Amino acid sequence: MCGIAGICGRAPSPEASLLGSMRDALAHRGPDDAGAWASPDGRVALVHRRLAILDLSPAGHQPMADAAGRCVVVFNGEIYNHPDVRRDLEARGHRFRSRSDTEVLLEAYREWGLDCLDRLDGMFAFALWDSEKRRLFCARDRAGEKPFFYRHDPGAFRFASELKALLADPAAPRRLDRDALEHYLAYGYVPGAMCMLQGYRKLPPAHRLVYEPDADRLEVSRYWDLPPPPDPGAVADPDALAEELESLLVDSVRRQLVADVPVGLLLSGGVDSGLVAASVAKAAGGRVRAYTIGFPGHGRFDEAPRARRVAERLGLEHEVLDAGPATADLLPALARQYDEPIADSSMIPTFLVSKRVRERCTVALGGDGGDELFGGYTSHTRVLALDRWGALLGGAVRALAATAAAALPAGAWGRAGLLQIAQPAGRRHAAFWYFDPTLRRRLMPDGPPPGAASPEDARVAAGAGAATPLQAAQRSDFRTYLPDDILAKVDRASMLCSLEVRAPWLDRRIVEFAFGRVPDALKAAGADRKILPRRLAGRVLPPDPDPGRKQGFSFPLDRMMEDVWGKAISGALMDAAGSPFDRRAVEGLLGATRRGRRLANALFPLALFELWRAAYRVAVP
């Protein structure tokens, strides 16, 4: 895992001090080595920070050039099938000077050009300068595990793993994008190519970017997509599919255990990490230690007892780590680390566990991705229920539900359900908000820019290719919520601690299996979720005394609001000068909290945004 950045354009790159500042802004992503390269004409400059995982020798140093000096690359991530690709390339006459997957990428590009992406499985973001074709080739992995920010001005293109590296330039503009803020308020993250700062963009998952500086031409295109859903009339054998899933997951884990540094396992009490643990036990025996973060005294938030039973059943060494004090001063630090605010309070335990696990290993396998692939969220079964009710209720009842919801205050019991009932078919999976449209107008009366697509429209569009409401919800989650909340959260929190976290569930073969082969009936039905993985878990994991619970990696935010956390969040909101939020609306939320309403999930996103805005000195237009 590493940090990358660079500048490419018609004019010579800025002075070395600015490039050094961009590189040093990413030091936490790569504490083991630093490098820089500039083209002879000075028009291309690449910088790199290295967290050494494979081939710890100087041969793995980046930026890395091919033997002929034609191509130079900066690479962040891991190519899990690099041994297979290496063998293929060697059979075609390529010779290697290192054991690194970075060199495999270089030679793959020399052999197949832009189509090399079809051969690569892994998590990655990279930029490769081809001096012969005079183009910069950039790409991001299929699920969006590794980040890539960029800015294109006339005659100049800049990119970096994290936005803070682009902002290392004192002259870099820092104006709020109100359209992005609208999306953040709706769902708690900034989706797709959008960025919270005007003029900056994110390269979406499964996309490549080609920039030709001589023509100042930039092209972004998709190189992979989810497969079509299975034929609804096809007969599926649950046992055969469970066996196939087990085989795929074990092979994914086997690939992802390859490293020249210690590897651990993040074990919660859930099905996803439990099945990864079972695959680790099968692929590596007892060579990998499992780690669980403990929250003693916090009841359902403490998953250590369940995780301990799983580890004992599988014969894995297991250590429960004390999270340490979750003090409120973490909030400003995390707000700065996250290039864009994310309204997910589980960033706090994710950082705490990453910090403790990094004391023991450099790489850790996690359980992210299973919910999106196999219908594991409560919103998935909720969509199914809403679809059933929607078929029975007419337009008049939906209109009545919308009117009743509008009369209820934020956080009132039943408001969210009424709004969801009010949605027409095909849009119900877009009705799981932090702030619904009415509440967003109370917070920001001016609204987004005229003509901007609504967050709801964007979320509906992200469900493209679906044949059922469940498929639409899953596809939308995979394309937006997974990369822009879950994976962004894990990447920034873990890399702040220089820990590489890998996600075996996001192996391309498993993703294509889940979306292209597994029918809805083996994902979610009635109140049951993740049906196929649970079927497999029943064979390899100890019985779960509470199989219906869906805890996730959570933080007891409502309870913490009663102490200094509440004061910190209130202070961040009330001390914010020049806020885009209506002060009376914010004061109303705080007042309702003091009167006993549980509104932490509304206040946390607003406070984190204000702390982020202050940390980056963002101007509000």
Instruction: Pick out the low-confidence regions.
Output: none
Main sheet overview: 6 strands, antiparallel
Query: What is the strand arrangement across the widest sheet?
Result: 2-3-1-9-8-10
CATH C-level of the largest domain: Alpha Beta
Q: Level of helix content?
A: 40-55%
Number of strand segments: 17
In percent, how much strand structure appears in the residues? 5-15%
Oligomer: single chain
Tally of distinct domains: 3
Shape: globular
Written overview of the protein:
With 621 residues, the chain is α+β, with helices and mostly antiparallel strands. It has 3 domains: 2-222, Aminohydrolase, N-terminal nucleophile (Ntn) domain (Glutamine Phosphoribosylpyrophosphate, subunit 1, domain 1), CATH 3.60.20.10; 238-375 and 495-540, HUPs (Rossmann fold), CATH 3.40.50.620; 556-621, no CATH class. Helix content is 41%, strand content 15%. The chain has a 6-stranded antiparallel β-sheet. Helix 10 crosses helix 17. It is globular and about 70 Å long. The protein starts with a strand and ends in a 6-residue tail after the last helix. 50% of the residues are buried. The model has no long low-confidence stretch (mean pLDDT 91).
